[in-house]
Design goal:
The complex is a heterodimer of chains A (432) and B (444). Chain A is 34% helix and 19% strand. Chain A is an alpha/beta fold. Chain A has 2 domains: 8-170 and 339-358, NAD(P)-binding Rossmann-like Domain (Rossmann fold); 183-334 and 364-427, Dihydrodipicolinate Reductase, domain 2. In chain A, the strands form 2 sheets. In chain A, strands 14-13-12-11-7-10-9-8-15 form a 9-stranded mixed beta sheet. Chain A has a 6-stranded parallel beta sheet with strand order 3-2-1-4-5-6, sandwiched between helices. Chain A is globular and about 60 Å long. Chain B folds into 2 domains: 4-175 and 366-383, 3-Layer(aba) Sandwich (Rossmann fold); 179-357 and 391-415, Dihydrodipicolinate Reductase, domain 2 (2-Layer Sandwich), CATH 3.30.360.10. Helix content of chain B is 37%, strand content 18%. In chain B, a hairpin with a 4-residue loop joins strand 12 (341-343) and strand 13. Chain B is globular. The chains are: A alpha/beta (432), B alpha/beta (444).
Chain lengths: 432, 444
Amino acid sequence: MVKRAWTRRELLRSSAVAAGSLMISGAAGPLAFAAGSDTIRVGVIGCGGRGSGAAENCAESSPGVKIVALADTFEDRLQGLKKNFNVPGDRCFVGMGAYKQLLTIPDINLVILATPPGFRPIHLAEAIKQGKNVFMEKPVCVCPAGYKMVVEASEQAQQKGLAIVAGTQRRHQAVYVEAMKRIHDGAIGEIVSAQCYWNMGELWVNQRKPGQGEVEWQIRNWLYFTWLSGDHICEQHVHNLDVVNWAFKDVQPETVHGLGGRQWRTGPEYGNIFDHFGVEYIYPNDVRTISMCRQIKGTTDNVSERIVGTKGVWRSDPGVIDGEKPWRYEGLNPDPYVQEHADLIKSIRDGKPLNEGRRVADSTLCAIMGRESAYSRQQLRRAWMLSRCTLNLLPSDDLKLSDAKPVPAFAVPGQYQLPGWTPEARGRGKRG
Amino acid sequence: MSSPVNNAISGTSAGVAGATAAVLGQMAHAQGSDRIKVGMLGCGGRGNGAMQNCLDADPGVEIIALADLFESQTKSTRDRFLKNEKYKDRFKVNDDHMFSGFDCHEKLAKCEADLLLMATTPAFRGRQLMAAVKAGKHVFTEKPVATDVAGCKEVMEAARLAKEKNLAIVAGTQRRHQTSYVETMKRIHDGAIGELVGGQCYWYGEGIWFHGVPENSPMSELEWQVHNWYHFTWLSGDQICEQHIHNIDVMNWCFNGPPAKFTAVGGRAWRSFNQDQIKTAKEVCRKFNGGSDANWEKYNGDIWDHIYAEFEYPNGARCLSFSGHSPGTGRQSEKIVGTKGTSNCSSTITGENAWSFPGRGIDPMVQEHTDLIESIRSGKPLNEGQRVAESTLTAIGTRISAYTGRAISWKWLMGGSKLELVPRDIKPGPGIFHPIATGRDELV
């Protein structure tokens, strides 16, 4: 995505839309609600582990940042941030509609979106509608319908001069940034192959408690439900898929073919997600890449990426290029979880808002495509996914914690129905 | 195929007493003719096919003995060939050359055949091959050649012994005898696509038969397992070993040897829910459990239905292996990627040295027998034993990595693994059932 500076005229126009006045000028444009100061006033939507981490990273990243409001579905989840940042009670919102309440506060000019990913498209759309700059955790959607919402909201952000930065922090990590510059400059020649992995043990699980409503339990145990997390290929492995896309200058794969299953982690507390995936992504010119991810306790770990060119190979771990032009990164390596916020806030203050929305949506869509291919065992084309696939896992507007929302069965090849799929879709563009 | 060279060899071998050990090895039983007397071990679908391929390959081929676990298979096979106008004159199997039972390979090895074709369940190949080589037989063996590490090592040992005795071993990885592959591979090895930096190989299909107990059959539980061998890892090696080995062998061919490291994921996402298969498994369960199908799951087999793996070859190239069965998109091919181009391994090269195979296709399933017999006649017996054992072990190593969730090395497979799934003494009786692998099984 081309990032460009905003003209004064555009800034004025977008500020006018956002603030309804012409009093703000120049760099203040994206700070439409800063009320005369350049203080970044942050609202956090989703105050669990990652939301709390992101809020702290954000506050640490730059001077003049204040955490001023909190929203979470559950009161217990926002207590930590409330205490740490002395957020007044009337700025703490609880419940399924909490995000909406927070977004109506005029003096908030940046929001952190860190709820389970299933809600992200809805939250992002509302945040942009309300004229907020956004930091959003990855992944940013779990289905093609959500992808389209994110892309739409990102375009609107562009028009309004609002920033969107995503929690794919490798894009802000010096050792990656410097390597990618070289790859894009031809240091390893033409890319002919790539591999990426997120093979690990296991993550937390929250067992259902007596009296807990179905939806409440699923949200508290959100990793394990496709409608909330997108499955672990989406929730975690998107990081690595994003790096491979980056190496390809964000040209997207045309075709995917995935395998996967639920072999070890089979209990009901693990919802309906898989515990392993292996997906082949095929980029233009028939460049085929390996993606592998696994969450099974006691198995061999590997979280890394590797890009193979005609003149050399880059490995993320330990960050080296081998080949005709050997290279090793020797500079500083600031904490990328902080750096991404620093870059975001600087871009806002400089009047050159970063907008990573489309890019992170594309990488998330790669993960979704891999998952759906593995669920259905069909080779899928990206063009089909965007034009014909009608999969929509977005929660309804009136979802309540007490709702009966049965966990769908995990996918079984031959039984899983991918919405919009027809046997005729298979023949076209199939790669042998 | 009768030639002056061949006659000369046959003449030499007529004087058995004075012959060198090498020549004795070549045609020990040819007794002055250019006939190749062939015994068949394993009379199922592939065995019947292999015999036909062998008969088509050389007019001197005569089938003289049949062996199978099940007597019914040897009988129906003989009946089928005797009714076939094309083959019946060269099908000379007397009643005393019809062998059955778990020790049928030992009886077969004692007969006067020059060449044994092996198409039994892969689990038993190592011991059968060893018995054949010890008895001085040339061998055509179907792939894979083992289901465990111990079996692969036994085949490697048999291959070494065959070399000593100047006996031929050709394996049913027929791409190695397919002109289009051979010609393409020559160019790859000559550097047409530069240094090899990646590759992919696939065998993904819709599924395979699942055999119940034939009506009125007296077969024991174990015999039923052998009859339905594909679905038990100890018997077939799982689909990656039984089928995908073809494509794996092509990758190994590209790199002139096996991978150094394996990382794999996989599972059983479909077979356990395949209603047709479950129905048969329940029938089998009732048959062996007095009408009860309470414990039907173990009769549903233990093989997985997908394995996704990465091979890392000694030069650092990482390649994809993609295999399994279920409804979905099928794939069956290979691709190799170099610094100067790519190839489908089977007919085309792209890039700086673009090329496509101009010739006509031949039937590689016949050609492999033609090459085998020619090599025997010329006194330069082909020996593919080590190579096919390596490709089999590549598949097994990948399976081990997937079953255990561990990244493993070739070095560990050869030096550290103690995996042995096939009992030495095997006889009709209760079945041998293992739990379905969990994805984090213990490394053995």
